[in-house]
Each structure stands twice: as structure tokens, then as C-alpha cells.
Amino acid sequence: MGDEADFELRLKEVADKVTVALDQLIPPASGPEADLMRAMRHAALANGKRMRPFFLLETGAMFEAPEKTLLRTAAALECIHTYSLVHDDLPCMDNDDFRRGQPTVHKAFNEATAVLAGDGLLTLAFKILASSETHEDPAVRVMLIERLADAAGARGMVGGQMIDMLEEDSPRDLNTITRMQRLKTGALISYATEAAGIIGRARELERNALAGFSNDLGLAYQIADDLLDATGDETAVGKPLRTDEIAGKANFVTLLGVDGARQRVRLLAAQAKEHLAIFRNKADILLQSVDFVLDRTR
Amino acid sequence: MGDEADFELRLKEVADKVTVALDQLIPPASGPEADLMRAMRHAALANGKRMRPFFLLETGAMFEAPEKTLLRTAAALECIHTYSLVHDDLPCMDNDDFRRGQPTVHKAFNEATAVLAGDGLLTLAFKILASSETHEDPAVRVMLIERLADAAGARGMVGGQMIDMLEEDSPRDLNTITRMQRLKTGALISYATEAAGIIGRARELERNALAGFSNDLGLAYQIADDLLDATGDETAVGKPLRTDEIAGKANFVTLLGVDGARQRVRLLAAQAKEHLAIFRNKADILLQSVDFVLDRTR
């Protein structure tokens, strides 16, 4: 490890593992309902960064948590993330035609299939976690399920998406956007490290450190995403950019400016890293990953 | 007990209990995302028959299963049923404006809110089951979750909805419709009795009897629903009827005729009751309920 090429390789390896796991976990396309599975696969097996799974797996590795449990939990988390993208891309929501460098589900299939494929992926996430294949102890499985339902539900990700929809016509300030981010994207990023702590049987002090870390990281990631939207290259990113600008929506960059946003990312990155101090050199990979995922060009 | 008025009262009592439970379990409307909770409440607290909860609670009562566990599981099941109605009513799906005697969620709010409210209810179902409030034994909770995810997912309810969408433009035969029914509505009805068996720690023989019962009941209920669609009174039912006729979709009534469909319902009802023989007089209420729910005028 150490240099950037090695790190990128590691990120790619994790992403591939998650894709293989999802391929095995999503039912094969068969029967008259086969298009449903095809649509679920189209969305979930596409070339995603798998950032949430990456943080789950690398945090879990610090605790020497069982890899199979981590991988299945990461796959469940990615099912939730993917379903949210499928529904978010619908014409009645963000109305996006491209995602991860390919047509969105409602473009490649149709709207009804996109609604159902999202529903199917959301349900599959809980099925994966409930299975005895994930962990031998049902108490661990049920805790992973309860926390995922919290992170993904009306007081978590879905609530954040609701704020995002509502705010399209009204002016947004930094408080509203920060709250929206904490729910819409922050909750699932926090789940990644929290789930790893549950699986790895982390102590309270460690769980608190992970919560602080993922909180700062999640916010930094969103600001980096807004920077990418404002300054990135559409072809490299694989989805339309300047979307907030076009929709006249305020985001961290419109409110803080490009330089202000960059400075905020650096500050949050430093803060995120400080939380990891208690893990000493076991946190090396997580520390490296902070700069890497925040230095976004795609 | 015994006469129809008493029975109707009992059905109403169960429905009210479930509505009260849902009212407590769905987060209150607050924060900028308040419309999300309002939409979830609009859908879930409306005047539904609560047929699935009824079968869950009455089956559980046969085993003297703990009422709180039954009620929370019934509420979770109703969250799943309700979310499926909210998504099914969307313009890109069945495009229905009325449901349970009131405007559908996308009419009362908007489409984006309906998508998110459905997602929120689906996620809430698993949160309810995962909570230690539902049952002290995590192994029971996780089994309830796994079976619900099976019944509701791509190889269950969502798969059935997919077949329903696909078949709009192609001719349907009895086999396709029976398969679609088994997934789309049968899976959740079967879950009602299966979950009660899990909570009540039913023996294998009893679980098999419940599976046979709910399988016949579910199919009979769908045929009765198609009869209602073909012959019912729109005002009493509270939603548009003749929908299949208008869409030119085959259903059990168009394929079997009104008399043939009625005969099939009677046959299945008798078969359903036979499965309950092993429970002797403990099954009295379930036996009564069969005729009652199949004699549908609303």
C-alpha cells in the first residue's frame, strides 16, 4: 500500500467483490417477471464506485470482523443506495436519463419497471441481512436490520429526499442544505461504519469515534459532490452535471463559492481523520481513503 | 360470537386496533419533511378492511400467541400492503385517483411524495419487526423479517405486480393469472398465517395446514375481488370498478364467467376450511371469516 495507484487498485478490488456478491444475491431473470430482475441487475451491477461498501469493509477490517458478514452487509447497503438512485432518477423526481454511464432504469425499461425494481432492491436488502448466511447470531442480524431501516427510512434517507424535492421552489440556506445532506446521503454513509462496528463488536468509545468520522466524511463527500457538479467533466463522471445550476437550486458551492467549499472539504477531512486517532495505525487505510474519495474527478 | 353482526364487530375491532398501532408506529409529521409523514399517514390510516392483519391476529389467537407481537407484525404487514397500493396507484402503474374512499397519495400530495411515502412505509415495516418491542427473541424477529422480505420481494408481491404490468398488452390465460395472483396478493395473505404460526410456535403439521388454508383463501379472495370489480357498486366500494373491463384485461371473471367464478370461490372456500380441521373448534372464528370475507360487497 501507500501510493495512489495501489490504493485505487484496492478500491477497485472492493468494488468488484461487491458487484460479484450482488450478482449472486439478486435473483436471476426468469419467469414472466424476468424484466424486473433484469432492471434490478441493470441498476445494481452497473459500474458504481461502491464507496459505502468500501468504508464498511475497511472499517470492518480494523476489527478483524468476518469478511462474509461484512460483504453481505455491504451488498445490502448498496441495494438500498441503488434503489434510492433508481427512484430518484424517475421523471417525477430528478428526471435523469443517465446514471453510472448508462441509461437510467426507466429509460432502459419503463417507469413502472423502475418503481418496482427499486421496491425489489429495497426489500432484497432486508432479506440479505435477515439470512443466517450473513451472521450466525440473529441478534447481530436484527441489529443490522434495525439500524439500516433507521438510516434509510422517513427519518433518514427518504426524509432527506423529501426535503430535496420540497426545496426546489424555495430558497435554501446552509442550515437546510446541511440537514438535508445529513439525512439524504449522510445517514447511509454513517451506516457503513456503524454496521462495521456492530459486526466487529466495537466498544462504545470506538463506535463514537466511527460516528464522528463518518459524520464529517459524509458532509465532506457531499460538498465534494457539489464541487464535482459545478466543476467536473461530464464525460468522465458519466452523468449530467450542472444540474443544480440548471434547476436554480442552491447547494454548498453556490452558497460557499468554489474556494469556500474546497476549504470546507479540507477542514472536514482533517476533522474526520482526527476521530480515527484512537485506532492508531490500524486506521491507515481509512486515513488514506479520506483524501482519495474527496479528491473527486469522477 | 356466532351471528354476522357480532362477526362484523370483531372485524371492526381488529381493524381499529391495527389503525391505532399504525398511528403510533408511523413517525409524527414534523420538520421540513413533514409532508412525507402526512402522506404515509394518509395512506396507512385510511379506512382499510385490514384483512391481512385480521387473519394474522385470529390465526395467532389459536396458538395463544402474545398479542403485542401479533399486533406489531400485523402493522408491519399492513405497511407493506399499503406501500404496494400507493406505488400501484401511480400514473405509471394503474393510474388510480381514488383508494379507500379518498384521493390516492399522488393526488392528495404529488407523485414524488407518493414514491417516497411508499418507500418510507416499506422501510418502516422492517423497522417495526426488527425492534425488540416486537418480540424478546431476536431469532423470532429475524425469521418474521426474512419471510416478509420473501413474500414482498421480487419473487413475491413485487414480482406479481411486474407480471400485472407486463400483461396489459398481451392475452392472459388462467395459468398466467393464477401465477400472478399467487405472487401479487397470495404471498402477503399467506404471510399473515405463516407469521402467526412463527409467533405461536406452531408445529410443522399445523404450519402446513395454515399454508394450505391461506393458499386457497388467497386465490378465493382474488376471484371474489374480480367478481366485485365486475358486479359491485362503485360508491360502496370506494374505488373505481370495471377497471379490468375498461383496460381490456382478462381476469378470473372474464375467463370463468360470473357463475363459473362464483362456483370457484365456493369450491376454494370449502377446501380452505378443510385445512383447518386439525385445529377443531379453536378454528371457529377463522372458519366463519372465510365466508364473510369472500361475500364481498365492498
Automatic annotation (TrEMBL), chains A, B:
Q: In the UniProt record, does the keyword Transferase occur?
A: yes
Q: Does the keyword Acyltransferase apply?
A: no
Q: Which GO terms describe its cellular component?
A: cytoplasm
State the Gene Ontology BP annotations: terpenoid biosynthetic process
Q: Which UniProt keywords apply?
A: Isoprene biosynthesis, Magnesium, Metal-binding, Transferase
The protein's required cofactor(s) are namely: Mg(2+)
- What are the protein's GO molecular function terms? metal ion binding; prenyltransferase activity
Alphabetical list of InterPro entries matching this protein: Isoprenoid_synthase_dom_sf, Polyprenyl_synt, Polyprenyl_synt_CS, Prenyl_diphosphate_synthase
Which NCBIfam families has this protein been placed in?
FPPsyn (NF045485)
The UniProt similarity line reads: Belongs to the FPP/GGPP synthase family.
What protein does this entry describe? Farnesyl-diphosphate synthase
Organism name = Hyphomonas chukchiensis
